[in-house]
Every structure is written in structure tokens, then in C-alpha cells.
Amino acid sequence: SPFHDGTMPNWFHEHCIWAKAKINTAGDISNLENLEWEDQEKIRKKIESADTTDPSTSGDGKKSRKRPNSQVYKDYQ
């Protein structure tokens, strides 16, 4: 750790990991066996249900609107 003599924990909140990482199997999570058994089971059930998106963090389903290529460099002409 840059701030003290010790290790810095690297972990996600349960609802954050699904938004930040693409997890298809339990093997995609390193050191899963080091988590508490209850937490391991929660993760395995979530993977099995294939419901890995958290509705509170997902977008509204609309495509982003981009400028046409003709307008991209308009400021530099």
C-alpha cells in the first residue's frame, strides 16, 4: 500500500462487480475461495441465474447519439 505497511484490499461491492466485470463462470473470479462461504454461494447463484446486470446501474437502453462524420472536425476547418 502506498499509505501504510500492509496490503491493500481489492474487492468490489456485491452490486458493483456485475457492472464492472463480465463474469460468466465462477472461475472468472480470482480468489473466490478466499471469500466467506455465504458470499461464494451468492455469487454462484447470481452466475447460474445469468442475471448479472444490476438494474440500478444499467442505462436506459437507448443508443448514444453521435455527431455525423461531417461535423466531427468542423472546428478545425
Structure report:
The chain is an all-alpha fold and about 80 residues long. It has one domain (about 1-60). It contains 3 helices and no strands. It has helices at about 15-20, 35-50, 70. The N and C termini lie far apart (about 50 Å).
Summed up:
With 77 residues, the chain is mainly alpha-helical. The protein has helices at 14-20, 37-49, 69-72.
Question: What is the total domain count?
Answer: 1
The termini sit apart by: 49 Å
Mean pLDDT: 72
Radius of gyration: 20 Å
Helix content: 25-40%
How much of the residues is beta strand, in percent?
under 5%
Rough outline: flat
Number of strands: 0
Structural class: mainly alpha
Supply the number of helical segments: 3
Contiguous low-pLDDT stretches (5 residues minimum) are: none
Give the biggest beta sheet.
none
Helix-strand string = HHH
GO molecular function, one term: DNA binding
InterPro entries: Znf_PARP, Znf_PARP_sf
Subcellular location: Nucleus
Main location: nucleus
Summarize this structure as a short list of keywords or feature phrases.
77 residues, mainly alpha
Sequence-ordered SSE layout with sheet pairings:
Layout: H1 14-20, H2 37-49, H3 69-72
